[in-house]
What we know:
- This protein is mostly beta strands and 227 residues long.
- The chain has one domain (2-224): Clam (outer membrane lipoprotein receptor (LolB), chain A).
- The chain is 15% helix and 39% strand.
- The chain contains three helices and 13 strands; from the N terminus they run H-H-E-E-E-E-E-E-H-E-E-E-E-E-E-E.
- The chain has helices at residues 2-12, 28-39, 118-127; strands at 44-52, 57-65, 69-76, 78-84, 88-93, 98-103, 128-132, 139-140, 148-156, 165-170, 177-183, 189-199, 217-220.
- Strands 1, 2, 3, 4, 5, 6, 7, 8, 9, 10, 11, 12 and 13 form a 13-stranded mixed sheet that branches.
- Residues 13-24 and 106-119 have low confidence and may be disordered.
Amino acid sequence: MKKIFVLMVLIFTCFSGFSVYAQGILTAAAFFQNVSAEYGKIEDYEADVSIKTAKKVMEGHVNFKRPNLLRIDFTKPDNQVICFNGDLLTIYLPESAAILNQTVESSGTGSAASLATAQGLSLMSRYYSVAYESGQEAVPLEDGSTENVVKLVLSRRNTSEAFRYINLAILPESKLIRRIEAITPQNEKFQFDFSNYSINQGISDQRFIYDPPTSANNYNNFLFTEQ
Protein backbone atom coordinates (compact mmCIF):
# COMPACT_ATOMS: atom_id res chain seq x y z
CA MET A 1 0.00 0.00 0.00
CA LYS A 2 2.74 2.49 0.99
CA LYS A 3 4.80 1.80 -2.12
CA ILE A 4 1.80 2.24 -4.45
CA PHE A 5 0.87 5.51 -2.71
CA VAL A 6 4.35 6.98 -3.15
CA LEU A 7 4.43 5.79 -6.77
CA MET A 8 1.16 7.58 -7.44
CA VAL A 9 2.42 10.78 -5.78
CA LEU A 10 5.37 10.86 -8.15
CA ILE A 11 3.15 10.20 -11.14
CA PHE A 12 0.42 12.75 -10.48
CA THR A 13 2.85 15.67 -10.01
CA CYS A 14 4.55 15.39 -13.38
CA PHE A 15 2.06 15.42 -16.24
CA SER A 16 4.49 17.62 -18.21
CA GLY A 17 5.16 15.47 -21.20
CA PHE A 18 4.52 15.34 -24.85
CA SER A 19 5.63 17.95 -27.41
CA VAL A 20 3.36 16.73 -30.21
CA TYR A 21 0.07 18.55 -30.60
CA ALA A 22 -2.37 16.26 -32.42
CA GLN A 23 -4.20 17.56 -35.44
CA GLY A 24 -7.32 16.41 -37.25
CA ILE A 25 -9.95 14.17 -35.68
CA LEU A 26 -10.03 14.54 -31.92
CA THR A 27 -9.66 10.95 -30.86
CA ALA A 28 -9.12 10.15 -27.19
CA ALA A 29 -5.40 9.71 -27.82
CA ALA A 30 -5.26 13.09 -29.60
CA PHE A 31 -7.12 14.78 -26.75
CA PHE A 32 -4.68 13.24 -24.28
CA GLN A 33 -1.78 14.63 -26.33
CA ASN A 34 -3.45 18.05 -26.29
CA VAL A 35 -3.65 17.89 -22.50
CA SER A 36 0.00 16.83 -22.34
CA ALA A 37 0.97 19.71 -24.63
CA GLU A 38 -0.70 22.18 -22.28
CA TYR A 39 1.12 20.68 -19.30
CA GLY A 40 4.34 20.97 -21.29
CA LYS A 41 3.91 24.75 -21.05
CA ILE A 42 3.74 24.69 -17.26
CA GLU A 43 6.95 25.56 -15.43
CA ASP A 44 5.35 25.40 -11.99
CA TYR A 45 1.98 25.17 -10.34
CA GLU A 46 0.32 24.99 -6.97
CA ALA A 47 -3.13 23.67 -6.16
CA ASP A 48 -5.30 22.25 -3.43
CA VAL A 49 -5.34 18.46 -3.44
CA SER A 50 -7.49 15.76 -1.89
CA ILE A 51 -6.31 12.14 -1.82
CA LYS A 52 -8.83 9.39 -1.11
CA THR A 53 -8.48 5.67 -0.55
CA ALA A 54 -11.00 3.15 0.75
CA LYS A 55 -9.89 3.83 4.32
CA LYS A 56 -8.54 7.36 4.37
CA VAL A 57 -9.04 10.91 3.12
CA MET A 58 -6.10 13.33 3.00
CA GLU A 59 -6.18 17.04 2.13
CA GLY A 60 -3.44 19.55 1.51
CA HIS A 61 -1.69 21.97 -0.81
CA VAL A 62 0.68 20.81 -3.54
CA ASN A 63 3.57 22.72 -5.13
CA PHE A 64 5.30 21.44 -8.27
CA LYS A 65 8.19 22.83 -10.30
CA ARG A 66 9.76 21.34 -13.40
CA PRO A 67 11.40 19.03 -13.91
CA ASN A 68 10.57 17.06 -10.76
CA LEU A 69 10.31 19.19 -7.61
CA LEU A 70 7.31 18.39 -5.43
CA ARG A 71 5.99 19.37 -2.04
CA ILE A 72 2.64 18.59 -0.41
CA ASP A 73 1.77 20.23 2.91
CA PHE A 74 -1.20 18.46 4.41
CA THR A 75 -3.93 19.92 6.59
CA LYS A 76 -5.44 16.44 6.99
CA PRO A 77 -3.49 14.84 8.62
CA ASP A 78 -2.31 18.17 9.98
CA ASN A 79 1.40 18.96 9.49
CA GLN A 80 2.15 15.86 7.40
CA VAL A 81 4.56 16.67 4.56
CA ILE A 82 5.75 14.96 1.38
CA CYS A 83 8.76 16.63 -0.28
CA PHE A 84 10.83 15.58 -3.27
CA ASN A 85 13.82 17.78 -4.15
CA GLY A 86 14.91 15.84 -7.21
CA ASP A 87 17.24 13.53 -5.30
CA LEU A 88 15.60 12.77 -1.96
CA LEU A 89 12.00 11.87 -1.19
CA THR A 90 11.06 12.81 2.39
CA ILE A 91 7.77 11.97 4.09
CA TYR A 92 7.08 13.33 7.56
CA LEU A 93 4.40 11.44 9.52
CA PRO A 94 3.60 13.53 12.64
CA GLU A 95 1.24 10.92 14.10
CA SER A 96 4.10 8.41 14.20
CA ALA A 97 6.87 10.96 14.82
CA ALA A 98 8.60 9.37 11.82
CA ILE A 99 10.61 10.69 8.88
CA LEU A 100 10.79 8.40 5.85
CA ASN A 101 13.68 9.14 3.48
CA GLN A 102 14.32 7.59 0.09
CA THR A 103 17.27 8.45 -2.13
CA VAL A 104 16.30 8.37 -5.80
CA GLU A 105 18.85 7.62 -8.50
CA SER A 106 18.93 10.14 -11.33
CA SER A 107 19.75 7.60 -14.02
CA GLY A 108 18.15 4.47 -15.30
CA THR A 109 14.83 4.17 -17.10
CA GLY A 110 13.56 1.77 -14.47
CA SER A 111 14.24 4.00 -11.50
CA ALA A 112 11.56 5.81 -9.52
CA ALA A 113 12.98 9.12 -10.79
CA SER A 114 11.94 8.27 -14.34
CA LEU A 115 8.29 8.53 -13.27
CA ALA A 116 8.82 12.18 -12.32
CA THR A 117 9.81 13.32 -15.81
CA ALA A 118 8.31 13.90 -19.21
CA GLN A 119 9.87 10.58 -20.24
CA GLY A 120 7.92 8.88 -17.47
CA LEU A 121 4.62 10.16 -18.86
CA SER A 122 5.70 9.09 -22.32
CA LEU A 123 6.17 5.57 -20.97
CA MET A 124 2.64 5.69 -19.56
CA SER A 125 1.33 6.52 -23.01
CA ARG A 126 3.31 3.59 -24.40
CA TYR A 127 2.05 1.06 -21.88
CA TYR A 128 -1.53 2.28 -21.46
CA SER A 129 -4.16 2.64 -24.17
CA VAL A 130 -6.38 5.75 -24.04
CA ALA A 131 -10.13 5.90 -24.61
CA TYR A 132 -13.02 8.23 -23.80
CA GLU A 133 -15.16 7.02 -20.93
CA SER A 134 -18.35 8.50 -22.39
CA GLY A 135 -17.38 10.42 -25.52
CA GLN A 136 -15.48 13.63 -26.18
CA GLU A 137 -18.20 15.93 -24.81
CA ALA A 138 -17.85 17.20 -21.24
CA VAL A 139 -20.04 15.47 -18.66
CA PRO A 140 -20.63 16.03 -14.91
CA LEU A 141 -17.63 15.15 -12.74
CA GLU A 142 -19.91 12.87 -10.70
CA ASP A 143 -23.61 12.38 -10.05
CA GLY A 144 -25.18 15.64 -8.95
CA SER A 145 -22.12 17.75 -9.83
CA THR A 146 -22.47 20.99 -11.79
CA GLU A 147 -18.80 20.80 -12.82
CA ASN A 148 -18.24 19.34 -16.29
CA VAL A 149 -15.14 17.44 -17.39
CA VAL A 150 -13.92 15.25 -20.23
CA LYS A 151 -13.29 11.73 -18.95
CA LEU A 152 -10.51 9.46 -20.21
CA VAL A 153 -9.72 5.85 -19.34
CA LEU A 154 -6.13 4.58 -19.56
CA SER A 155 -6.02 0.76 -19.68
CA ARG A 156 -2.79 -1.14 -19.20
CA ARG A 157 -1.54 -3.12 -22.18
CA ASN A 158 0.24 -5.76 -20.10
CA THR A 159 -0.08 -7.17 -16.60
CA SER A 160 3.27 -5.83 -15.37
CA GLU A 161 1.91 -2.29 -14.84
CA ALA A 162 1.06 -1.21 -11.28
CA PHE A 163 -2.43 0.01 -12.13
CA ARG A 164 -5.08 -1.80 -14.14
CA TYR A 165 -6.84 1.45 -15.04
CA ILE A 166 -6.11 5.15 -14.65
CA ASN A 167 -9.16 7.38 -15.08
CA LEU A 168 -8.61 11.08 -15.80
CA ALA A 169 -11.14 13.89 -15.54
CA ILE A 170 -9.98 16.91 -17.57
CA LEU A 171 -11.27 20.48 -17.37
CA PRO A 172 -12.28 21.11 -21.01
CA GLU A 173 -11.19 24.76 -21.32
CA SER A 174 -7.93 24.84 -19.38
CA LYS A 175 -6.99 21.18 -20.12
CA LEU A 176 -5.94 20.85 -16.47
CA ILE A 177 -6.42 17.58 -14.63
CA ARG A 178 -9.32 17.78 -12.21
CA ARG A 179 -9.28 14.19 -10.97
CA ILE A 180 -7.13 11.07 -11.21
CA GLU A 181 -8.44 7.64 -10.23
CA ALA A 182 -5.95 4.78 -10.26
CA ILE A 183 -7.22 1.22 -9.82
CA THR A 184 -4.88 -1.62 -8.90
CA PRO A 185 -5.30 -5.26 -10.02
CA GLN A 186 -6.74 -5.89 -6.53
CA ASN A 187 -9.40 -3.19 -7.22
CA GLU A 188 -7.90 -0.76 -4.71
CA LYS A 189 -8.69 2.80 -5.81
CA PHE A 190 -6.58 5.90 -5.25
CA GLN A 191 -8.36 9.16 -6.06
CA PHE A 192 -6.62 12.54 -6.43
CA ASP A 193 -8.70 15.73 -6.79
CA PHE A 194 -7.11 19.05 -7.76
CA SER A 195 -8.64 22.53 -7.45
CA ASN A 196 -7.69 26.21 -7.21
CA TYR A 197 -4.72 25.98 -9.56
CA SER A 198 -2.13 28.78 -9.81
CA ILE A 199 0.06 28.34 -12.89
CA ASN A 200 3.57 29.66 -13.62
CA GLN A 201 3.94 31.86 -10.55
CA GLY A 202 7.74 31.59 -10.45
CA ILE A 203 7.94 29.25 -7.46
CA SER A 204 11.39 29.35 -5.84
CA ASP A 205 13.50 26.22 -5.42
CA GLN A 206 13.70 27.16 -1.74
CA ARG A 207 10.12 26.01 -1.31
CA PHE A 208 11.27 22.44 -1.84
CA ILE A 209 13.81 22.51 0.96
CA TYR A 210 12.20 20.83 3.95
CA ASP A 211 13.73 20.46 7.40
CA PRO A 212 11.63 17.95 9.36
CA PRO A 213 11.52 18.03 13.17
CA THR A 214 14.73 16.78 14.74
CA SER A 215 12.75 14.91 17.41
CA ALA A 216 11.27 12.47 14.88
CA ASN A 217 12.79 9.07 14.10
CA ASN A 218 14.48 8.65 10.69
CA TYR A 219 13.92 5.62 8.46
CA ASN A 220 16.13 5.62 5.36
CA ASN A 221 15.53 3.86 2.03
CA PHE A 222 12.11 2.79 3.26
CA LEU A 223 10.86 1.75 -0.18
CA PHE A 224 13.27 -1.17 -0.14
CA THR A 225 12.72 -2.16 3.48
CA GLU A 226 10.10 -4.76 4.29
CA GLN A 227 7.80 -3.52 7.05
